[in-house]
Design goal:
mainly alpha; Arc Repressor Mutant, subunit A; Tetracycline Repressor, domain 2; 2 domains; 0% strand; globular; transcription
């Protein structure tokens, strides 16, 4: 085995270890926040201790707690966009919307602490994290709008506007979903159906309202 290959293997091992520790730090922060605490209530030393590393090692991964919070938002956005993108490949709008919601709530259920964090920080005290959450939701909405198979007569700006409302509503309903008991399948199903109906009404009502406004000579944008 030559020296170049050995160096490459060592670099890969270091990278994987760094990635593992980074993930451990993020999970430690989420665990410490649990259902109630905000990111601002945690200390760097507290998170490092929960992750099993010395406080100085924290700085190899994040400059401060704010940067850790931003990483949580970024990871969520990337993973969720991939999940929902795959669901929308199924085709027709109705089937894709239902499939996307099933996967969305499945992701919420598997990442309960993450979505509790998002719910709190979306209106929390850190401006950069609030902005990062809005940006990620906007990215999700833009991809949803781009994937919708709509008549060419409907401007993309209208579809994007409605998509933003759909995404915002879905994230809001995730709070109700998390408040339900994990094993209460009847209640969880009720919330899913309720959300699906709301999103369809938002879509139909939003597009119709835009069309009516244009017919009356108004601007298509709010």
């Amino acid at each position: 085995m030559n020296n170049r290959l050995l160096r490459s293997m060592k670099l890969n091992q270091r990278y994987l270890q760094k990635l593992k520790t980074r993930t451990t730090l993020i999970q430690a922060a989420l665990e410490l926040m649990g259902e109630e605490k905000g990111l601002g209530e945690l200390s760097l030393r507290e998170v490092a201790g929960e992750a099993g590393i010395v406080p100085a090692a924290f700085y190899r991964h994040f400059k401060n707690m704010e940067e850790l919070g931003l990483a949580v938002v970024d990871d969520m956005g990337g993973k969720l966009r991939i999940i929902l993108r795959d669901a929308r490949k199924s085709g027709a709008y109705r089937a894709a919307l239902r499939g996307s919601l099933d996967l969305f709530f499945g992701y919420v259920n598997k990442n309960r602490l993450l979505f509790r964090f998002l719910s709190r920080e979306k209106t929390g005290g850190n401006k950069r994290i609030r902005k990062a959450i809005r940006i990620e939701m906007s990215f999700i909405a833009s991809e949803l709008a781009a994937d919708m198979r709509m008549p060419k007569s409907i401007p993309f700006s209208d579809i994007e506007f409605v998509s933003e409302m759909i995404v915002s509503n879905a994230f809001n309903m995730s709070n109700e979903y998390l408040d339900a008991e994990k094993n209460d399948e009847k209640e969880l199903r009720r919330i899913k159906i309720k959300t699906l109906k709301q999103l369809r009404l938002i879509f139909i009502g939003g597009i119709r309202a835009k069309r009516i406004k244009r017919k009356k000579g108004g601007s298509p944008n709010p």
